[in-house]
């Protein structure tokens, strides 16, 4: 075996070990892995996805194998030629891998709740996207630990059928685990959805991809491929940021970057929470990867959960955050409003939704007895939706993939803390 073969073997072993090697537990087998090939020539756009930038703009990201212009033509009619915008093109190296040309273009201003058509670079293909509404109601799809397996395909189809406005993903996107072509496959897999609705994401442990000596920089692929609007929220890192959409303030946190009280992330979060205007955004959602509350036997006692909770829980409680979504544990669980391990009517609801379709399988072992603060738990692949109807009420539903059918298994009405006078000073 030559040196390149040896390196590849090491990378494969590291990738399949992932970052869970020191936290061993048995999982049932997942669905078969899916590899999505590129169709077209080297100038054909691929891995197209969009993300929201501010109130009235969208960032369109795509990759080509040969240099093309970072230009988007767009408009409200299928001719897609009313407006044009230019952006930037970058690439990255990862050991022996060289990425394609990564294009990022911000378009707008755009009208809310409107379909726009667009073309990329020199390509004749026309895509379409729908902007988010400017006010209630708005529907979010929420899914973690997505991966690219047969279960992922089912989950994506169910999400598409939900007719959502925006997708929120609390980490672990591609499960490339250092095998960089898997990022390309993942981008092609999610393109049909991610090119039509904004996908707002944050990082998980499988997105870190830091290898001692060989590749010391974490999040290389994630930061290059999935650029989020961090600068607009005053953050200095693509790993944590916030944004407002349709009456909801959404905060994305990084479980695998510094979070102690003297860290840049903590200081940014403190300032962000202080600047929330509950008259403008009555709802506040937070997404992390490693859950702070978890009655599954998987991922108990990890620093990213215990340490981040100890550092930041009080901040989020005092700010009256409504819901905290997490991934990491490959199962579903919904908690009561909880603060300091006890039920509290003015605390956030915790929802773990790391069941998108990862290649590692489900985490089926739960602690017995079920804690009083845990309301519903089940180890099944699936996704969630949250329909924010108005300033005070939202409908949360978890849909499991039952024989590939979309089945609503846990549904509950939520009331915003901003509408609870007992919780707002």
Automatic annotation (TrEMBL):
UniProt superkingdom: Eukaryota
| UniProt KW Hydrolase keyword | yes
Names of the cofactor(s): Zn(2+); Fe cation
Q: Do the record's keywords include Signal?
A: yes
Record domain Calcineurin-like phosphoesterase: where:
138-332
Which reaction is this enzyme known to catalyze?
a phosphate monoester + H2O = an alcohol + phosphate
Region forming the signal peptide: 1-24
CDD domains according to UniProt: MPP_PAPs (cd00839)
**Residue ranges of every copy of the Purple acid phosphatase C-terminal domain listed in the record:** 347-404
The entry's keywords? Glycoprotein, Hydrolase, Signal, Zinc
Cited Pfam families: Metallophos, Metallophos_C, Pur_ac_phosph_N
The Purple acid phosphatase N-terminal domain is annotated at 45-131
Q: Which family does it belong to?
A: Belongs to the metallophosphoesterase superfamily. Purple acid phosphatase family.
Tell me the protein's name: Purple acid phosphatase
Say which species the protein is native to: Cicer arietinum (Chickpea)
Q: What is the lineage of its organism?
A: Eukaryota, Viridiplantae, Streptophyta, Embryophyta, Tracheophyta
């Amino acid at each position: 075996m030559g040196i390149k073969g040896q390196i590849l073997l090491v990378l494969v072993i590291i990738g399949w070990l992932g970052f869970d090697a020191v936290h061993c537990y048995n999982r049932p087998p997942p669905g078969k892995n899916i590899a999505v090939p590129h169709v077209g020539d080297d100038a054909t756009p691929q891995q197209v996805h969009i993300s929201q930038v501010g109130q009235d703009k969208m960032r369109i990201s795509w990759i080509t194998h040969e240099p093309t212009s970072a230009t988007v033509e767009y408009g409200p009619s299928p001719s897609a030629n009313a407006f044009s915008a230019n952006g930037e093109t970058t690439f990255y190296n990862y050991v022996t891998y060289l990425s394609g040309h990564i294009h990022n273009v911000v378009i707008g201003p755009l009208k809310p709740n409107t379909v726009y058509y667009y073309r990329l670079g020199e390509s004749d293909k026309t895509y379409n996207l729908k902007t988010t509404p400017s006010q209630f109601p708005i529907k979010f799809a929420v899914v973690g630990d997505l991966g690219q397996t047969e279960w992922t395909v089912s989950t994506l189809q169910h999400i598409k059928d939900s007719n959502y406005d925006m997708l929120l993903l609390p980490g672990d996107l591609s499960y490339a685990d250092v095998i960089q072509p898997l990022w390309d496959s993942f981008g092609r897999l999610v393109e049909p959805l991610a090119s039509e609705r904004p996908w707002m994401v944050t990082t998980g442990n499988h997105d870190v991809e830091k290898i001692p000596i060989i590749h010391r920089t974490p999040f290389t692929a994630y930061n290059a491929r999935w650029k989020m609007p961090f600068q607009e929220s005053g953050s200095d890192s693509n790993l944590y940021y916030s944004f407002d959409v349709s009456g909801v303030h959404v905060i994305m946190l990084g479980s695998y970057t510094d979070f102690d009280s003297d860290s840049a992330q903590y200081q940014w979060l403190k300032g962000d929470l202080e600047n929330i205007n509950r008259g403008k955004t009555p709802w506040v959602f937070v997404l992390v990867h490693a859950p702070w509350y978890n009655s599954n036997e998987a991922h108990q006692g990890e620093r990213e959960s215990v340490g981040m909770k100890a550092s930041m829980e009080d901040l989020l409680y005092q700010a009256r955050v409504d819901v905290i979504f997490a991934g990491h544990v490959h199962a579903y669980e919904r908690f009561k409003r909880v603060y300091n391990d006890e039920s509290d009517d003015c605390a956030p609801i915790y929802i773990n939704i790391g069941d998108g379709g990862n290649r590692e399988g489900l985490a089926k072992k739960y602690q017995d007895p079920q804690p009083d603060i845990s309301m519903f738990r089940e180890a099944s692949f699936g996704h969630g939706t949250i329909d924010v109807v108005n300033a005070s009420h939202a409908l949360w539903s978890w849909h499991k993939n039952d024989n590939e059918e979309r089945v609503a298994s846990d549904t509950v009405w939520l009331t915003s803390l901003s509408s609870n006078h007992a919780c707002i000073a």
